[in-house]
Design goal:
Shape: globular
Order of helices and strands: HHHHHHHHH
CATH class: Mainly Alpha
Radius of gyration: 19 Å
Oligomer: single chain
Bound molecules: retinal
Helix content: over 70%
CATH architecture: Up-down Bundle
CATH topology: Rhopdopsin 7-helix transmembrane proteins
CATH superfamily: Rhodopsin 7-helix transmembrane proteins
Structural class: mainly alpha
Strand content: under 5%
Length: 247
């Protein structure tokens, strides 16, 4: 726990990021939902999905903050439930904006399947078999790079070329989000596994005090919270900007 104020009360930074996360996701949802009336018909569903992503996150952040405050441990289960709903919805965004250029449902399923594999293997590495977190992390990484491939040079990128300049630009920015913004998560995973940096130092969990394990988990939560704010709100704003250009 980091003490921001010299005297009491102590501010728990991790708890604070859950609080700010809840507020930011709520505010973003209100914005996306209300703006739906100001965009052309054909973009309304895309903006609705942007709002759903931040709304689902807002609800989970509300619970995650409670959980963290009550038990002082990572709300990993809620975290992954949130991701299992919101990451596939981000895949839906890619599908919706390239649909005019002929995107097929098959592409949507490929993206969703890859993201489910990425998240389920990540969950195994964090909760079910943390002693094999390197192996699960690599499997998860493979699915992640497949998504990176699809949006950078695979089907999504190809379709974007035929969907007009604005869509192509938006897809390019979203592809940067996937490559750089989403890379924040494996960073949290690597730094947060109990041995830290995948136990490269070789200390193993046994050699670590409870305090060290707890602080690694807190660091992981802060990194994940930053990642969520950047990616969920950022993704939505890119879509919003696109709707404004195509007005
Ligand atoms: C809104 C939530 C988002 C965009 C979550 C994205 C999560 C990831 C890209 C997670 C990726 C992981 C790896 C690539 C390897 C280690 C395990 C994960 C699940 C943290």
């Amino acid at each position: 726990m980091i003490n921001l104020l010299a005297s009491a009360p102590t501010i728990d930074v991790t708890s604070f990021t859950f609080f700010v996360g809840t507020m930011a996701m709520m505010a973003a949802s209100v914005f996306f939902f209300f703006e739906m009336r100001n965009v052309p018909e054909k973009w309304r569903t895309s903006l609705l999905v942007s709002g759903l992503i931040t709304f689902i996150a807002a609800v989970h952040y509300y619970y995650m903050r409670d959980y963290y405050n009550d038990y002082h441990s990572s709300p990993t289960f809620f975290r992954y439930v949130d991701w299992m709903l919101t990451v596939p919805l981000m895949c839906v965004e890619f599908y919706l904006i390239t649909k005019k250029a002929g995107a097929k449902l098959g592409l949507l399923w490929k993206l969703i399947l890859a993201s489910v594999i990425m998240l389920v293997t990540g969950y195994f590495g964090e909760i079910i078999q943390p002693e094999s977190s390197v192996l699960w992390g690599i499997l998860s990484g493979l699915a992640y790079f497949y998504i990176v491939y699809l949006v950078w040079s695979g089907e999504v990128a190809q379709l974007a070329k035929d969907a007009g300049e604005n869509v192509q630009k938006a897809v390019k920015i979203l592809a940067w989000f996937v490559l750089v913004g989403w890379a924040i998560y494996p960073l949290g995973y690597i730094l947060g596994t109990p041995g830290g940096l995948f136990n490269i130092a070789g200390t193993g969990t046994e050699g670590l005090t409870q305090d060290v394990v707890a602080s690694r988990h807190q660091l992981m939560d802060v990194i994940y919270n930053i990642g969520d704010a950047v990616n969920k709100i950022g993704f939505g704003l890119v879509i919003y900007a696109l709707t404004q250009k195509e007005k």
